[in-house]
Predict the structure.
Amino acid sequence: MSAVRSLRKLSRVALLGATPRDSLPDAIEHVAKVHRAHHPGADLRPLRKAYMLAESSHRGQMRKSGEPYITHPLAVTLLLAQLGAETTTLTASLLHDTVEDTAVTLEQVRREFGDQVCYLVDGVTKLEKVDYGSAAEPETFRKMLVATGNDVRVMSIKLADRLHNMRTLGVMRREKQVRIAKVTRDVLIPLAERLGIQALKSELEDLVFAILHPEEHTRTRELIREHNSHPDPLTGFAAQVRRTLREAGITAQVLIRPRHTVSVHRLRLKRGQLGDCDFARLLVLVDEDADCYAVLGELHTCFAPLVSEFKDFIAVPKFNLYQSLHTAIADEQGRVAEVLVRTRRMHQVAETGVIALGDPHAAAEPAADADGGAATADGAGERTDPTRPGWLSRLLEWQSHAPDPNTFWQELRDELAQDLEITVYCAVPGAEGPGGGALPLPAGATCVDAAYARLGEAAHRCIGARVNGRLAALTTVLRDGDALQLFLESSHGSPSGPSPEWLDHVRTPSARLAIREWLAAHSRRETDDPRNERTPAESDRLPGLEEEQQAEHAEYGENIPVVPGHPGTPVRLARCCTPVPTDAVTGFPVRGGAVTVHRDSCRSVARMASDGRLTLPVRWEQSDAGCRVTLRAEAFGRPHLLADLTETIAAQGAAVVSADVEPPREQRVRHTYTLQLPDAAGLPALMRAMRRVPGVYDVTRAVRQAAAN
């Protein structure tokens, strides 16, 4: 409500025009006061000068709401001042519409305010529809993103500009409201998230929600009003937390932080029904990083913690600068409260993101802390980020290869739909140019994405990969922290080029565009090449044969089934289900006269039978011979688990042929062992012994998902 009153005051003052030459104009007195609260020593002369130029240039122009147009740049500037933006940003925000809507030129802005202000104003100035037609909007965003690559303050001004426009969108026609809201949802809200400006992002989400989903918005607001009509149980919860921390000697501020409308809506969809403590979270603010972990220890000691809800974004910050500890605790009455723990500096960055970084061209200057003092990034022990994040560098790289506005617009929306980022460590033996080091990628990216991000068009020659030391398909989805090694075919001669199937697995626009360009350029050549004609043998293959052959195991000595009536027929055990003696099995003839044997419970059996594949009865030749089997152990992660499991396996007389340990997820881990048993009859006892290992909650026979036809 205070923000609304401030804007109304600006509107009334703007109607009265400018004030005497030697004093600060009344219309920006409030802006100056808010600005000085964040930057006590700020020089206000550029603001006065910028306001005078903006007011005189926009004089006589009115908004569709009936207010003087100058109220819009004033409101945008106030929003940025409240977020702590420095003077250059505020000066540019006052002037951000002058070049677009008045006779003021960029050269005039440069002459009177300098290169930085001119660059920011130019960055947010729209391209004319007269010149660009329907491409004006996507090309404007392209221009804005390129400018943001050199100075993120361009996008800060644009986001504040859109927020004020969204606040006053009610005067527009319904169809125009929807169009603007969709662009805001698809492009600007994801950009606000990636730049870490949560204060703008949250309100933009709520305003878009009200326009695009009015019924759901009304229902959620009713739930919030109903909740607010009763005493908030988090008030007592917060008092308990304050008392606990005070008794522990920890200086902290404990606040109740209400969820915004969209956050409540998402939580209701997730949980189905909301509890009394779900409409807000507790926020604990401390001075030092170490205090965050001290608070966490006290909360988990004095309350019942929900371990699955714990996340440490201090040790592993999010890609958008965000740092905090997240946890959930329950009191003696069983009420559960979500808790955020962070330093005051972390809180400032969590709310304002890149705006808290200040002037990106003055990196040597210390950033102001929440209390207005100086806080060096390394002295405070807190994370600083470059002014061009990894996702922005990727976006700028691929947009240069998307000359078509429609392609750029669609790829931009697809890129921004990926709301997480991972870092992998990529090495390319023998590659020229940058071939190693940390590589930021969107979550869900594959080895193919990494290849194009690291190598560009040279990735056309990529033929294989190792992930964490193990050979992996190029379509393997990467995880945060993976070590990746890419292999390229020889540069002599023309490369075989990317597979069309890669398009089904890439997540980054740069990889997708590069693959499409290569396929388009080589499609005619490949179609006319007689070497690409299929041989009769290839044409006559049975459906699913390739997948089946890839799943075949080598023969296991004497421990194999036989086909009654067909002595001497080669028999192989399928690797997808690793049948062992005593298992009920079914055989399928394959090319070359061999028979592949699957367990009856294997998914491949049902699939191939439904395809009309011929089945053959098989039986085990010897039931007491040695066998090979793959077992999967599901366990809670703990130290020495691998050693205890392998010791148990050895004690049962089995030999480990291979082992694979997947990275832990939510404190759970999966171990997969391929074992050689001296006697198949000992398999049940082995599985029981493995289940008795502390932390192991299940041991099963491994069955791989059959490939889809």
